[in-house]
Specification:
The complex is a heterotrimer. By secondary structure, chain A is of the alpha/beta class. Chain A has 2 domains: about 15-145 and about 285-345, 3-Layer(aba) Sandwich (Rossmann fold); about 150-275, Rossmann fold (3-Layer(aba) Sandwich). Chain A has helices at about 1-15, 40-60, 80-90, 105-115, 145-160, 175-190, 210-215, 230-240, 255-265, 285-295, 305-320, 325-335, and strands at about 25-35, 65-75, 95-100, 120-125, 140, 165-170, 195-200, 220-225, 250, 270-275, 340, 345, 360-365, 365-370. In chain A, the strands form 3 sheets. Chain A has a 7-stranded mixed β-sheet, with helices on both faces. Chain B has a domain at about 20-235. In chain B, a hairpin with a 2-residue loop joins strand 1 (about 145) and strand 2. In chain C, about 70% of the residues lie in helices and about 5% in strands. The N and C termini of chain C lie far apart (about 50 Å). In chain C, helix 2 packs across helix 8. In chain C, a hairpin with a 2-residue loop joins strand 2 and strand 3. Chain C has helices at about 1-30, 35-55, 65-90, 100-120, 145-165, 170-180, 180-185, 190-215, 225-240, 245-265, 270-285, and strands at about 125, 135-140, 140-145, 220. Chains A and C meet through helix 7, helix 8 and helix 9 of A and helix 1 and helix 10 of C.
Chain lengths: ~375, ~325, ~300
């Protein structure tokens, strides 16, 4: 026991100073944190591919004289506890100059507080819950639009365009899912729509039949779901099996081909809102999409790939302009007028992007088709 | 003498690590300390009393949620802590009263069920626990632990705080093991009927061990939430409780040193290897733990660092 | 709505009942909680998933034969795995204290879950939709062909099992072994064979329940066994653990309770009901609804 203790302590102290860089080039890392395993891994893997492309380009372009840029990818498994652990690991690595992530708002919010301990820059490319930037942390920025914009946009769209007046709302009780569902409900009711029910489910549940049966009884003309694609796919599938053939509508967390794979044919006619306009319509994004398709042939692009690429590029620009001091990097980003593949990005005082477009997509023949 | 040097090392080593900016190792050391408190606490139920508890994390959760809720209201840690301990102990007592009558494997399943109920309550009672979003809510803050003019903010300060409480835990557990109650527990574990006939008040002794053990769980939870500043129900799943049992089984049930070794092997070593072997390694570790657990329970049921009494007992049945 | 919830509950109950049989049979013979049974269920579901996604249906008319093959493969695979687990992890502990096999079973459970997670991935996989899906009207309520299929198959399997246990020589040997190992041995029964048989049958039924679960919910995941496992165990305890008919009845009761709890009370709290039932039965009526009161042997 005594010996085990000695060895453990030896490791504890011995770990110091083992991070020496190769001769000449100074290594600066950009951390990417997202779920690389688990239920939403498909989206996280896409983010990692996008960030890799960005870093590769940065190094190849020779923008950094004596700096070698590296991407350090971390897995938070979409689990707030793991996110906090990983965040602690990140702040003890002095080579990390900035963080891109996390995907889930439930992870971003607790982790952001840890990064702020060291004043480390965090740009999220996917967490859409408004509360993230309401915490008053100076180091936190968001490059995607928030749930309040997205939820109310969807409510308006279905009332104006499709004249739908009865909707049932389900959410997964996470910061993201519940937040989105609440925003939808609020706007839908303001516009005189009727919400027939507002129910929470647990992530990981597979059986929604009993809930859907009771929803069916109240005859809604659409189901709005706040949450991620796995549960949404099952809800869409089981609703149609129960004879409730109304469209299932959700947000950016569902806008991925994986949703259609899980829900199968039942997802035909379902809707998803997505932040931004489709990358195919952005002139500057074309080059990125082509490089992506060339580097990863046969791989579907995931919803946050462009955003992650943009966030990584922005951090790279900050490093190029200021060096690797965290405070200077944060300061640079807060004043940045960054012109990237999504257009021009500037941040408001809270750290939210001022670039706030939303699009609606519909599933047709097993693919998401742009509606508006 | 060697324990004194060990203690000195435990006090000095982190200072060196901190000086070189090795925050991660320090974070891991704190985590190991928290798990040590949990494991030594659980050892009282599983090791001394021989009752398999598969829902122990529920009491860590009770401690953590109580501490978070009170601390958000601005109460000092030194007031919050006794409340957490009392509440954890009280709930443990109320559950124990009916449950402790049950036979070994049924008791294990009932503790599992209680553990899951607590997690589901933490997950679904949004008005109290904020559901899967966790505490503190946005805009709220868990107040810092203050001792005179010192406030605990960084990992180094928390390391010493955790070390202090761990030493208290070890002391209490050691004293218990060698007390009259400790011997009564062993007697009950070996033969409940014989113990009863020798005049031991079986329900009272069992209940005492059960409650005390739950209070250590609450203690660990209360410190943890002040340290990390965030809790969510995901931290208290069934598999976390099982991991604690695995630590005891592998380290050695009924032996304090065994419990500590179990924590070092299952928490300390994997976390320290994480930066070396990469994040993917985290996925493999549970596979390895499961395997070790089976091998140990078949070939060395007393664990790697056995308690002498427990080993004799487990091998008596071999002949 | 009422009839529809009953139908939801019966379908769910069919899966629980098949799953619960494995717990109850093993408990009847070895007096141990086979905690790893939930992982046998999960592996069964994955075998079904692999077969369904790799083997094409040759002709539309062959669909019944195709599904028969899927179920037989899942049953055999899961049954064999159950026997292997018994031989490796439980047999050496047959005379150890009661908690040792439970701890070993938990170890097996962790191992199998993580093995599948590492080999098949950590995310949910969609179950291939190869069963034609139709809706029927049943007294004003919707029933899908899948629900009828699940219920019918479960009832058929339970009927066959009941016949096997009550009418055949092997069934008799199983009943004798459950009664008393030593006496059964003296009567010339090979107890080890009987135990293996119990694990094959229990594991096989668990495997089929896994495939049905996959077909019904349309997805598989490495940790899909845990919660249904606890519920199936609750069903077994509710019906009186060790009692086959009790496990079947317990499964259906639990399925209906869960459907009603989710439909009428709260969908997010539906799992709490199963745990509360488990605790209440173990505390106040450990012999279950249909079990006999057996005094604790000392």
């Amino acid at each position: 026991m005594y010996r085990a203790l000695l060895i453990a302590l030896g490791i504890l102290t011995g770990f110091t100073g083992c991070a020496k860089s190769p001769a000449g080039m100074k290594v600066v890392k950009i951390a990417l944190v997202c779920p690389l395993t688990g239920d939403v891994a498909a989206m996280g893997q896409g983010m990692k591919r996008a960030a890799e492309i960005a870093v590769e380009e940065g190094n190849a372009a020779g923008r950094f004289q004596d700096i070698k840029l590296e991407l350090a990818a971390f897995d938070d498994r979409a689990d707030p506890k793991e996110a906090v652990n990983v965040a602690n690991q990140i702040i003890s690595d002095r080579q990390i100059a900035g963080v891109v992530g996390h995907l889930n708002s439930g992870c971003s919010i607790p982790a952001s507080q840890i990064y702020s301990k060291r004043g480390l820059l965090m740009i999220t490319s996917a967490s859409t819950n408004p509360k993230l930037t309401l915490q008053g942390l100076k180091n936190v920025f968001r490059i995607c639009t928030t749930d309040d914009v997205q939820g109310s946009f969807a409510a308006n769209y279905f009332i104006d365009k499709l004249k739908i007046t009865r909707a049932a709302v389900i959410h997964d009780k996470t910061s993201y899912g519940q937040g989105l569902a609440e925003e939808f409900k609020k706007q839908f009711e303001i516009r005189q729509g009727k919400i027939t029910g507002f129910d929470g489910i647990n992530i990981g549940d597979k059986d929604f039949r009993a809930l859907l049966t009771s929803i069916k009884n109240k005859k809604p003309s659409l189901i709005y779901y706040g949450g991620m694609y796995t549960e949404c796919g099952l809800i869409s599938k089981q609703a149609k099996e129960l004879g409730l053939p109304v469209p299932v509508v959700s947000g950016d967390g569902v806008f991925t081909p994986e949703f259609i794979k899980i829900g199968g044919n039942a997802t035909e006619g379902d809707y998803a809102s997505m932040i931004g306009i489709p990358p195919e319509k952005l002139p500057k994004a074309k080059a990125f999409i082509e490089r992506y398709k060339a580097k990863y042939p046969g791989v579907d692009m995931q919803p946050y790939d462009t955003y992650t690429y943009e966030a990584t590029s922005l951090i790279m620009e900050a490093i190029e302009k200021t060096g690797k001091d965290p405070a200077q990097i944060v300061d640079y980003v807060s004043r940045a007028k960054f012109s990237g593949i999504l257009g021009e990005t500037t941040f408001d005082a809270k750290g939210d992007t001022l670039n706030k477009t939303i699009s609606i997509y519909r599933v047709k023949n097993g693919k998401f088709i742009y509606c508006e | 003498m060697k324990w004194l040097t060990a203690l000195l090392l435990l006090i000095i080593a982190p200072l060196i690590g901190y000086h070189y900016g090795n925050f991660y190792a320090l974070h891991v050391a704190g985590l190991v300390g928290i798990y040590c408190i949990l494991c030594v606490g659980l050892n009282i139920t599983v090791g001394y009393a021989g009752l398999l508890d598969l829902g122990f994390m529920a009491f860590c959760a009770i401690g953590a949620y109580t501490a978070a809720l009170l601390s958000i209201k601005g109460l000092s840690f030194w007031i919050t802590l006794p409340v957490c301990l009392l509440l954890g102990g009280l709930i443990r007592y109320l559950i124990g009263a009916p449950v402790l009558r049950l036979r070994g494997d049924y008791l294990a399943i009932v503790t599992l069920a209680f553990g899951e109920i607590f997690r589901l309550v933490a997950n679904n009672f949004d008005w109290l626990t904020n559901g899967p979003k966790g505490l503190p809510r946005v805009g709220e803050k868990i107040s810092e632990i203050r001792l005179f003019s010192l406030s605990f903010t960084n990992d180094l300060q928390f390391y010493y705080l955790i070390l202090f409480f761990l030493l208290c835990t070890l002391l209490i557990s050691y004293r218990l093991e060698h007390s009259r109650t400790g011997r009564a527990l062993v007697a009950i574990r070996e033969d409940e009927l014989a113990a009863k006939l020798s005049g031991i008040n079986v329900p009272r002794v069992k209940s005492l061990a059960f409650v005390l053990s739950g209070m250590f769980g609450a203690l660990a939870g209360a410190i943890y939430v002040h340290w990390i500043g965030f809790i969510s129900p995901e931290m208290f799943t069934f598999w976390e409780s099982v991991l604690l049992v695995a630590m005891l089984v592998i380290g050695g049930m009924g032996n304090i040193a065994g419990a500590l070794l179990g924590v070092l092997l299952l928490v300390g070593v994997p976390e320290l290897l994480r930066p070396v072997l990469g994040t993917r390694f985290v996925e493999y570790r549970m596979l390895i733990f499961g395997l070790i657990m089976i091998v140990v329970i078949i070939f060395r049921p007393e664990g790697l660092l056995p308690s002498k009494r427990r080993a004799a007992e487990l091998h008596a049945k071999d002949d | 709505m009422f009839i529809e919830q009953v139908i939801n509950g019966l379908t769910l109950g069919s899966i629980y009942a098949l799953f619960a049989l494995g717990y109850t049979m093993v408990y009847g013979i070895l007096r141990m909680i086979n905690f790893a049974h939930s992982e046998i269920f999960m592996v069964g579901a994955y075998i079904g998933f692999w077969v369904l996604s790799s083997l094409p249906v040759f002709l539309p008319g062959f669909l019944p034969a195709y599904f028969l093959a899927v179920f037989i493969l899942a049953m055999l695979g899961a049954g064999l795995l159950a026997v292997v687990v018994e031989r490796i992890a439980y047999k050496p502990l047959r005379h150890a204290s009661r908690l040792a096999p439970l701890i070993s079973a938990i170890g097996v459970s962790i191992f199998l879950q993580n093995l599948i997670m590492l080999t098949a991935g950590a995310s949910s996989r969609p179950y291939p939709e190869k069963l034609p899906l139709e809706q029927f009207n049943f007294f004003g309520a919707q029933v899908s062909s899948l629900q009828i299929f699940i219920f019918g198959l479960a009832v058929l399997l339970m009927f066959i099992l009941t016949l096997f246990i009550s009418r055949t020589r092997l069934g008799k040997a199983m009943r004798a072994t459950a009664e008393n190992h030593i006496v059964a041995q003296l009567m010339g029964i090979n107890v080890n064979t009987v135990i293996s048989l119990t694990f094959i049958i229990g594991g096989g039924l668990g495997g089929i329940a896994g495939v049905l679960n996959g077909l019904y919910y349309g997805s598989v995941k490495y940790n899909m066994g845990f919660l249904p496992g606890i519920k199936a165990f609750t069903a077994a305890v509710l019906g009186g653990i060790g009692n086959l008919k009790g496990a079947m009845a317990g499964g259906f009761i639990l399925g209906i309770v869960e459907a009603f709890a989710a439909g009428y009370i709260s969908s997010e709290n539906k799992d709490i009901f199963a745990f509360v039932i488990l605790i209440l039965v173990l505390l106040f009526k450990p012999a279950g609804l249909f079990g006999e009161e057996v005094p604790e042997k000392i």
